[in-house]
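Sample intake sheet
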Amino acid sequence: MKHHIPRYSCSRAWMDNGGPHCIGFGGLRVDDAIEEALLGVVGPGAIAAATAAANGARERRDQVRDVLSRDLEAARYAADRAFRQYDAADPANRLVASELEARWNRALAHAAEVEGRIAMHDAAKPAPIADPASLGVLASNLKTVWDAPTTDARLKKRAVRTLIHEVVADIDDAVLIVHWVGGAHSELRLPKRRRGQRNSTSADIIQAVRQLVLIASDDLIAGLLNRNGLKTGNGNRWTRERVTSIRSNYRIPVFKPAEDEIEPWLNLGNAAKLLKIAPKTLRLAAEAGEIEAIHPLSDGPWIFARTSLDNSFCSIYRRTSATEPKISHGIASQSAKSLLFNNIDRWVF
């Protein structure tokens, strides 16, 4: 493994004669394909397998307790028999009496040892056995459990060795033949990567990041991309570090709040507050094309330029006025004048 990236290669020529590796290929896509096939096989029988494993663990514990109980019974019988032999011996024959006493002591020590093992076994709390409903949830989320960082890698390898006998790889046609334990076979075809091809991030995502940095930090951008179900080029979830990396690769500047606190780009809430209208009214105007706005993601923020808001206020006012109830001409004229006067920044006399 180089740079923590798995790679499969044939080393027979190198091990035998010091020759070069005859074939080799990357293991990322292969491991993903084998993992998907393995989970597909295990998934339908996951509940039955988990239930059988829980019952098997309980039966093994009961079997151990039965064996210890029989050992204790045999040890106590041996101690009682040694005592009777010692009690029946002639005290005058000290050599025989001493040997029988030593046997009795050894028998008592063995019985005490077995009793201690039973006490330790009873004191150890067995793992709780999950109910069928919990096992059903586990089976439905088997992929999540498999990918969880807390899942022991040794358990995964044990599952692979239990179910898969061998995997034959044809690198010319990018075909994997999985020989399962039991005689079944599966053929997996992988898309062949062309020379120079990379798992690059989608251009649409790059453009979305380029627009989102106008109002959002890397942490917030990562959350927005994940909320929209978008993945990196390698199929991973977005994190702050990955957003920072893609910005660095494509020379996208980082978001920095304005020093004078007058942001040139605003989200929907701040833009509506600036115009003193409802956010819904502003969003409807943006959707209708009455005001210039950017909407990088379907489930994401609207982005407005402060300059476009200043130029588009009249169109927004016309839209809100059309939805308001009609009032008398005098009152309307007075309201319009009041609105005009309220939006004059400086008076010149």
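Comment: Residues 326-349 have pLDDT under 50 and may be disordered. The chain has 15 helices and seven strands.
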